[in-house]
Design a protein that fits this description.
Elements (H helix, E strand, L loop, with lengths): L2 H16 L4 H12 L3 H19 L3 H18 L3 H66 L1 H32 L9 H5 L6 H11 L3 H4 L4 H9 L7 H5 L2
């Protein structure tokens, strides 16, 4: 990959990190790799923080241009720029992978909690139904002795309890399904290519992870690789491009 392409990839990765809450933790590791001494690192910290503030206010396009220019200037004065840019990309990739793992673990824990909660509701409803049924059974002998009217009434109560149980179970299952989200919101290359800047990378990594393609999900150049594979075939399924 050319130095220009590496610089563009680093700029994109930096913007994604700037937009996250972990930027203040990521920044020292980036300036450590780009700055040759404390003075350079301090200057880089100031400049990158200014760009981060602009990103957080919605100015990603301008920041992308400024960062690309900054990194290209850096490449002209540093003979080891290619290796440094790759090291920065590796650091940014670690940050993205950790963030995705944290999000996935959070979603998994939330879903497990919801399933357990709804399971508790269903079990509680089942216990209520069983208790009601036991009371009905104990009352039937009394009804037989004192006439058929009470037996009919008790059968009606039992039917209502059964309907309530079914409603509870249905609502619980429906809620769990609705919380699972739609993993196929972006189906084709064309839909992916038209995503706003900054969303293409996370979407591609999420799809790669859902397909079990961990290598692609950790690839710092997943956006560039996906753009290449999607070029000229916008109707191609994105899952086919990102499949292991």
């Amino acid at each position: 990959m050319s130095l220009e392409a590496l610089a563009a990839a680093v700029a994109t990765g930096l913007i994604q990190a700037m937009a996250s809450e972990a930027w203040t933790n990521v920044r020292p590791r980036i300036t450590q790799k780009l700055g040759a001494n404390n003075a350079e690192r301090e200057d880089l910290t100031r400049v990158l923080d200014e760009h981060a503030a602009t990103v957080q206010q919605g100015g990603r396009v301008q920041v992308k241009r400024d960062l690309t220019t900054l990194l290209n200037d850096y490449a002209e004065t540093h003979g080891n720029a290619a290796a440094t840019f790759r090291a920065v990309l590796d650091e940014l990739n670690k940050h993205r992978t950790t963030r995705l793992d944290n999000v996935s673990n959070s979603i998994l824990a939330t879903n497990e909690s919801q399933v357990a909660t709804h399971g508790g509701i269903a079990q509680g409803a089942g216990a209520t139904y069983a208790s009601g049924r036991a009371r009905v059974d104990n009352s039937q002998d009394h009804s037989v002795r004192h006439g058929g009217a009470k037996a009919v009434l008790l059968m009606g109560v039992t039917g209502i309890a059964a309907v309530v149980l079914l409603v509870l179970l249905f609502n619980g299952v429906k809620h769990v399904i609705s919380d699972s989200g739609d993993s196929d919101a972006v189906r084709t290359c064309g839909e992916w290519l038209r995503l706003p800047e900054g969303q293409a990378g996370p979407v591609a990594r999420d799809i790669a992870l859902s397909l079990g393609n961990k290598q692609a999900a950790r690839d710092a150049f997943i956006v560039q690789n996906t753009q290449y594979n999607c070029g000229g075939v916008e109707d191609r399924l994105l899952a086919d491009v990102l499949r292991p």
